[in-house]
Write a structure and sequence with these properties.
Blueprint (H helix, E strand, L loop, with lengths): L1 H22 L6 E5 L12 E9 L3 E9 L5 E9 L5 E5 L2 E9 L6 E11 L2 E13 L5 E10 L2 E11 L2
Antiparallel strand pairs: 1-2, 1-10, 2-3, 3-4, 5-6, 6-7, 7-8, 8-9, 9-10
Length: 164
């Protein structure tokens, strides 16, 4: 009886760490910079040149840094809930609503945002969907995106290297 109990306890001690290692999700926290060699950028489009992420169990704080073709940069912070609820902020006088969720299957983070802006044709809405994934080594962040507005739809993949 003692041998059987010892065997069960040893089995649990051996397999439990393996289960917790496999159950851990990718760590998105850190500073990420756009890899311009791997990424194909559209002409005359503003693009996400860098992002700093602080991921917690129930929330996500990002500092996004966008850049245009002239090298002008536009940073903004976003404090988001990971429960899929709408989070509203203003980015340079433009209302922005964002929902974030995390995939249980692969640990990716999905963003859905809507930003209202003024164009030469009046008020317009930029609807964006982004999916962030981390490679197995935790050094490359991949962002698949789809941006839609009255001007059309743009899809692509950006690659970011971990800086910190």
């Amino acid at each position: 009886m003692k041998t059987k109990t010892i065997f069960i306890v040893l089995s649990i001690l051996f397999f439990l760490p393996a289960l917790t290692i496999n159950a851990q999700k990718a760590d998105f926290s850190g500073e990420w910079k756009l890899n311009k060699e791997k990424t194909v950028l559209a002409d005359n489009q503003i693009f996400l040149t860098g992002i700093t992420i602080q991921l917690k169990s129930d929330s996500l704080l990002t500092t996004r840094l966008y850049e245009n073709g002239n090298g002008e940069q536009y940073p903004f912070d976003e404090n988001l809930s990971l429960d899929g609820k709408d989070c509203k902020i203003y980015v340079y006088d433009m209302p922005r609503t964002t929902k974030v969720s995390r995939s249980d299957s692969d640990g990716s983070i999905m963003f859905e945002s809507s930003t209202i802006f003024q164009s030469s044709n009046g008020s317009d809405t930029l609807s964006a969907k982004e999916t962030f994934k981390i490679d197995n080594e935790g050094k490359i962040l991949t962002m698949n995106f789809t941006n839609k507005s009255s001007a059309g739809e743009i899809t692509g993949t950006n690659y970011y290297d971990k800086v910190k």
